[in-house]
Design a protein that fits this description.
228 residues, Rossmann fold, six-stranded mixed beta sheet, globular
């Protein structure tokens, strides 16, 4: 593990984002700033359409801001070329989506290994880590199962394991418990926070769940394009 990954740090300064429209453009983010260090967790709440997912897309380098800067471990990813950005994203950022986005034709083990497969062949170390993560999320007897053979909570656990495979500095979760019943949501929330704390990664979760938001170190609301 390199030095930058040993001490994750996120610095967001004066982010702004607008989308063109008729007759005026729609501003969804304005002057958003945030500083987080290793092990920090923050819940971002707010009404639907307030820009929460847009912010997560930018922090995940899947969209570009109109203004402002993002620094992850001292690197501004938006200064990288396309190939370097894809590699940076793969190595430094883990994603947990509401709909898990597992590949239906792949087994649990193969889905967890997807971030490594994107770079070519998997190493023995990555294979061992995938097995360990699958056991950590309580699916030791599901390695060879397909997503269609799993419950919703189990599929979300696979998504959490996948997000941690590359030892990311930053984990971004978009409504990770949004499609789960209350008891399953509690289990998944506890698991996500437990594994995040063990890894030392930074966790940012967009959520409508008061329970998940309350379990995190910080809670911020996105109102009128600004974090408050």
């Amino acid at each position: 593990m390199n030095e930058s990954k040993a001490a994750p740090h996120l610095a967001v300064s004066s982010l702004a984002k607008s989308f063109p429209g008729s007759p005026d453009s729609l501003t969804v983010l304005r002057d958003v700033s945030l500083q987080l260090s290793a092990g920090d967790s923050v819940a971002i709440v707010g009404p639907s359409g307030s820009g929460k997912s847009t912010l997560l897309q930018i922090l995940g380098t899947l969209d570009h801001p109109d203004a402002g800067t993002v620094s992850i471990n001292g690197i501004n990813p938006f200064e990288l070329d396309e190939n370097a950005l894809a590699q940076f994203r793969n190595q430094h950022i883990g994603f947990v989506f509401q709909d898990h986005h597992l590949l239906p034709q792949l087994s649990v083990l193969e889905n967890v290994l997807v971030p490594a497969l994107a770079l070519g062949k998997t190493s023995a170390e990555q294979m061992n880590r995938a097995h360990t993560l699958i056991e950590s999320v309580g699916l030791a007897d599901r390695h060879d199962h397909l997503p269609g053979e799993l419950s919703g909570g189990e599929r979300e656990r696979v998504a959490i394991a996948r997000s941690l495979l590359m030892n990311p500095s930053l984990i971004l979760a978009d409504e990770p418990t949004g499609n789960l019943d209350r008891s399953t949501a509690e289990i998944v929330s506890e698991l996500l926070l437990e594994l995040q704390q063990a890894s030392g990664a930074i966790l940012i979760a967009v959520t409508h769940s008061d329970a998940l938001a309350s379990a995190m170190h910080q809670r911020k609301e996105l109102l009128d394009g600004q974090l408050v």
